[in-house]
Design brief:
The structure is a single chain. Helix 3 runs parallel beside helix 4. The chain folds into 2 domains: 59 residues; 99 residues, Vaccinia Virus protein VP39 (Rossmann fold). The chain is α/β, with parallel strands linked by helices. The chain is built from 6 helices and 9 strands. It is globular and about 55 Å long. 30% of the residues lie in helices and 26% in strands. The protein has a 4-stranded mixed sheet with strand order 6-7-9-8. Helix 1 links the parallel strand 1 and strand 2.
Length: 189
C-alpha cells in the first residue's frame, strides 16, 4: 500500500527581510488547511526541506533565488540568510546590481542596507525600483498590500549619499513606480 502524500509544503525562510513571503505562506495555509505544512524563519532550513519534501506533492519556496551564470545547473534557492551579506554580493562580482520587486516587502532600514550592500559590491552601480508614495490618480483606492510604499524623495536623498551620479524616474506602471540608478563615481574596479 502506497502512503498518501500531504498536499503542500510552504517555506518562508526570511520573513523579516521578505515579509511578503510570510503572507504567501499564510495564504497557502488558509487555502489548503490541514493539507498544508507551513514553515517560516528558522524552521525553513535546508535540512527540513530535505527531510519533508518527499512527503508532499507541492513545494512552495517563498524566498530569494541565486543564479549561477557560468553553470545554470548550479543555481539555487536561498534558504540561509545571505541575500544582503556583503561578502556574497562581492563574490558575485557583478557589473550592475538590479533589485526589483522585493524592496517594498522590507522596512526602510533593511531595504537601504540591501541597496547599499549591492551598490558597494557592483562595479558599475545599482538600479532598483519600488512602489512610490506619489501615486498616479488612476491608482486611487488600490491597495498594494502586502507591499509598502516608499517616499521617493527620501530614496533620492539616500542614493545621493552613495554617489553624486543618480538618475531618478517616476512613471513606470502608470506612475506608481519609481526607479533609481546609482552609478559608481570612479572608474570600475
Amino acid at each position: 500500500m502506497t502512503p498518501t502524500l500531504a498536499t503542500v509544503l510552504a517555506m518562508a525562510p526570511r520573513p523579516r527581510e521578505l515579509p511578503g513571503s510570510r503572507y504567501e505562506a499564510e495564504v497557502i495555509g488558509k487555502i489548503f488547511g490541514s493539507d498544508a505544512r507551513i514553515l517560516t524563519g528558522g524552521q525553513a532550513t535546508e535540512d527540513s526541506l530535505r527531510v519533508l519534501a518527499p512527503e508532499f506533492e507541492i513545494l512552495h519556496l517563498a524566498t530569494f533565488g541565486r543564479l549561477n551564470r557560468a553553470n545554470p545547473l548550479f543555481s539555487r534557492m536561498e534558504l540561509a540568510p545571505t541575500v544582503d551579506d556583503p561578502g556574497l554580493l562581492a563574490a558575485a562580482r557583478a557589473d550592475l546590481a538590479a533589485i526589483s520587486g522585493t524592496l517594498n516587502t522590507m522596512d526602510d532600514r533593511t531595504a537601504q542596507r540591501l541597496v547599499g550592500a549591492a551598490f558597494a559590491a557592483a562595479r558599475r552601480g545599482v538600479v532598483f525600483n519600488f512602489l512610490s508614495g506619489l501615486r498616479d490618480p488612476r491608482w486611487a483606492g488600490r491597495d498594494p498590500s502586502p507591499a509598502r510604499r516608499f517616499d521617493p524623495l527620501r530614496w533620492v536623498d539616500f542614493a545621493l549619499g552613495l554617489s553624486r551620479r543618480v538618475t531618478f524616474t517616476q512613471g513606470y506602471l502608470d506612475g506608481h513606480d519609481a526607479t533609481i540608478f546609482v552609478e559608481q563615481e570612479g572608474p570600475a574596479p
